[in-house]
Each structure stands twice: as C-alpha cells, then as structure tokens.
Amino acid sequence: MKQVPIISAAQAAALVKDGDVLMGGGFGMTGNPVHLLHALAETGVRNLTFIGNNVGEPGLGGGRLLRNGQIKKAIGSFFTSNPEAVQAAQSGELEVLLIPQGSLAEAIRAGGAGIGGFYTPTAAGTTVASNADVKIINGKLQVFVPALRADVAFVRAWMADTAGNLIYRMTEQNFNRAMATAADLVIAEVEQIVPVGELDPNHIHTPGCYVDYLVEAHVTADDLGSSASVKGGARKVSEARMNMARRAFAELKRGDVVNLGIGIPTLVADLIRPEDGIILHTENGMLGVGPAPEEGGALDYPVNAGKIPVTALPGASYFDSTDSFAMIRGGHIDVAIMGGLEVDEQANLANWTAPGQPLLGVGGAMDLAVGAKRLIITMQHTNPDGSAKIVPRCTLPLTAAGVVDLVITELAVFAFEEGQLILRELMPGATLDAVRAKTTARFVERM
C-alpha cells in the first residue's frame, strides 16, 4: 500500500504556481480547506483561476486570496455573499463565470471521470447559458456544459489514513469528493490522520489513489467565521408571511421529498413535525433535515443550504453535491418551494437577480426549478414600490421557463392549469378587488 506524504500547509501552498487553476472544496462554512487557503494567501502566487461554489467566502481563505488580488478569474455558482467579490467583478478586476450549482458539481465530476461534458435542461433559455451549445434531447431544450479540471485541488476531509483514503463528516462532502478526482495534484487537509488499516473500507468516501498529499490541520470555530455557531430562538415573523408558509405546507403530503429555498420557504420547516412524514432535502448534501439545534454550530451539526446548522432526523443520510443534484435533475425531489421576483402568464420564473444587482448569485435555483416534480413559489404580491410581481411577461432574467405550478402570495393562490393562470383562492383578509388591482398578468377566476 502506498504512503501519501504528510506535509505542512505552507509546503502545500508552495506547490501552487502562478496561473494555476485551483479548485477549493466547501459549502458555506463547512468542508473548507481553510488552512491551505490561508497558507496560499501568504505566498506571492498570482493569476489564479479559482473554482468553487462560494468564491471568496468572507472570513475563509478564499476571501483572503481575493482581497490580495491573487485570483484573476472565478468559476462558481454563488459569489454574492462576499461584497468584495461583487465589487471586484463590477470593477473588472475579477473575471466571473457563473454556473448553476448542480451543473458546476457535475462539470467537476465529469472532469474527474474523463468525460468532455454533458447536456442538461438546467439554465436552458436563460442568460447564464446564452452562449452555450443547445440541442433538443428527449423533447427538451438542453445546454452543453464542458467538464472542469484543475491543476491543483484543495479539499477538506474529516479523517485520512496514511494511504490517502478519506472520510468526510456530515455535510462536509459537498464539492470535496468530486474535486478530489478532478485535479492533477490533490492536497487533502484533514482533521486526523491514522495508520493504514484503521479506517473501515466500507466507510471510505475518496480512495487514496486520488490523493497526492495530506495536511493535518484542526478546525476551530474561529476558522469558520461568524456563522459557525448559532443560538436557538424564536424568529419574529409577520402573520402574512406565516400564512404563506402555512398554505405552502398544506400542499405537502406524507412521503414527499421536499426542498425549501431561502426566505419564506424556510418558514415551512418550522411547521413540519416528525409525524408528518415529510422528508426535507438540502442541496449541499443531506436528506432528512431536522430543526435547528438549540445551541452549537457547524463543528457539531450538519448545515443546510442556507448555511444554518440543523439536526438530522432518524433515517437521515449524507452525500456529496453531485449525488444531491442527481436527485434533483433525476426527478427524485417531489416538491420545491422557492421564492420569486417575478412569475408570468407562461409559468416562467425569475428569482435570481434583481435590477441594479450584479449577476453573481444563481446558486441551485435553476437546477431545482427544472428538476423538481412540482414547483411552488411563495412571494410578496408586489414589489416595495407597489409594482406587480405576477406579470404578463417576466422582465428580469429567467431562472427557468414554464416550470411554475403554484404561486402563493399574501393576497392569493394561483395555479397554472392547461396553459392558463388560475386564481384558486384568496388569502386571509384579502379581497378580489385588491388582487385584480395588483396583478398585471391575465388570470381566470375559479374559486
């Protein structure tokens, strides 16, 4: 059995050269090779192309690289959590390539598997895929996504043996597993290294043949930034928002596998009881999400896609981002509940960028919008200026075309049936006159 060299973080950073393509694992504050990235930030390496889900996450090593001007190009799905990344992109200092989160994970997996790329319906007809090769496959418009590989990958695992076999913990698999296969040089930062033979082969996630170097480094709460720990507590939520969450919850049935987006959809989780038999999925790699813990953080618990520590219900499972989005694209998610900025008469959805905001935060919305069996949108009926959000035709960049099944606002519930927008019911306290006045899309009343 081969022995993988164990080196320091500084020695690992010295293996990265000017102009390299660098992959960095992690999602939010979990599974990040923070010590490797911080060590790289101490070097003079420049002109890097950085591939990662969250490029330049504040408080983590990628943020330091960005701040130092070491990254010239960033490839990822969500950058808006770091204002410095947004500013660098707007000023032209940072070249940005946005890829939907599931397509990013699959592109990395394809790179590691020696596949040139793949076709997917995700992002078809959107500005994100405006320059992509497109084909009609199985009656659906699909876009080609090239595979991604790197010169160097920094990954983070929980345990390793001296042969380089890796085990990840909870939701720390995320992008790490795929990235460990898709680079010429793979350096794994791990919490603990044990002798060969101490890891159960049944539990190994990444075989040692992929790993070139090991770095033992212990993660603390300070390494993870401000989101590493949370205190439980009741949230102050308006009755209108809770009404929307309750109405969305009423659409769910026992056995449904459900993904909840950010904002109003997260309130649905507070309504789900174990006896309801509803299985929550989070795209960063967990099925069977439970409520937030009373105390603790990312060192103690898994986290959801909103980077919030959660508990695991009995029967829960963990997996990586490629498996998670295979569930989504493969039609294994029964219901997705998401927020919206606009929905139009053709059941088109726009929810990933607003006027005046940089196009830096697509995340997993496009994958979920086209992959879930049923899509429910919860949103305010109008914008802060009073303008309509249920419109004849979306004016904002599309998330997906023809995908919305149900829209729930504080005023009404609309369904799309046989190509028509149908007003199904009024919400508590709402009037038909108010709905008519605040909806510019044409709709049919069937209450």
Notes on the protein architecture:
20% of the residues lie in helices and 28% in strands. It is built from twelve helices and 26 strands. It is α/β, with parallel strands linked by helices and 447 residues long. The protein is globular. A hairpin with a 4-residue loop joins β8 and β9 (166-167). It has two domains: 9-218, Glutaconate Coenzyme A-transferase (3-Layer(aba) Sandwich); 240-445, 3-Layer(aba) Sandwich (Glutaconate Coenzyme A-transferase), CATH 3.40.1080.
Characteristic terms for this protein:
alpha/beta, 2 domains, 447 residues, single chain, Glutaconate Coenzyme A-transferase, eight-stranded mixed sheet, ten-stranded mixed sheet, 20% helix
Give me the secondary-structure topology.
Elements: H1 9-13, E1 21-24, H2 34-41, E2 48-51, H3 61-67, E3 71-76, H4 83-91, E4 95-98, H5 101-112, E5 117-120, E6 134-137, E7 140-146, E8 150-161, E9 166-167, H6 176-179, E10 183-194, E11 213-216, H7 221-224, E12 229-231, H8 239-249, E13 257-260, H9 264-269, E14 279-282, E15 286-289, E16 295-297, E17 312-318, H10 321-329, E18 335-339, E19 342-344, E20 349-350, H11 365-371, E21 374-378, E22 390-391, E23 406-408, E24 412-417, E25 420-426, H12 432-437, E26 444-445
Parallel strand pairs: 1-2, 1-8, 2-3, 3-4, 8-10, 10-11, 13-14, 13-18, 18-21, 19-22, 21-23, 25-26
Antiparallel strand pairs: 5-7, 6-7, 8-9, 12-16, 14-15, 15-17, 19-20, 23-24, 24-25
Helix pairs in contact: 2-3, 5-10, 10-11
Q: Tell me roughly what share of residues is in helical segments.
A: 10-25%
Mean pLDDT figure: 92
Strand content: 25-35%
**Which structural class matches the secondary elements?**
alpha/beta
Whole-number total of structural domains: 2
Q: What is the CATH topology descriptor of the largest domain?
A: Glutaconate Coenzyme A-transferase
- Which stretches are poorly predicted, pLDDT < 50 over at least 5 residues? none
CATH superfamily grouping of the largest domain: Glutaconate Coenzyme A-transferase
